[in-house]
Design a protein that fits this description.
By secondary structure, this protein is mainly α. It has two domains: 35 residues, no CATH class; 79 residues. The chain contains four helices and two strands. Strands 1-2 form a two-stranded antiparallel ribbon. The longest helix is centred in the middle third of the chain and has 29 residues. The protein is flat, with a radius of gyration of 24 Å.
Length: 134
Amino acid sequence: MLDALHLVAQIRSDLKPLETRITDHAYLKALEENRVHRDSLKVFVGQQHHIISSDLRSIALILSRQGMLPSRRFLINVLQGEAAALEALHTFTVDPAKIEANYVNGVLTIELPKRVEAKPKQIKVNVSKTLKAA
């Protein structure tokens, strides 16, 4: 158990410079200062759609080629996670007036309004009483 604790401490130490680079990034500072236009976040959602779709294809390809390795269960879990992310992304619409983004303690949270589900609409079809044979 001590080895695991030491490993976690070492990883945290090794990642500290990267964490600093991320938290000090100019984009995050612009978010904090409300200098990022809401329309820019619309582009972000579109990019995420393409990234997740690409990840799904890549992971599925790896799984199809290496599916019998001990990592099979891990790859299946990753594939399911990416599929769930894409499904969740599809449940949102981007209304720039309703997007909210917050950056707190190094965590960027973007809230997108859920899409209003279309209600079924019945359409009356008028059928002529006289039918002509073709």
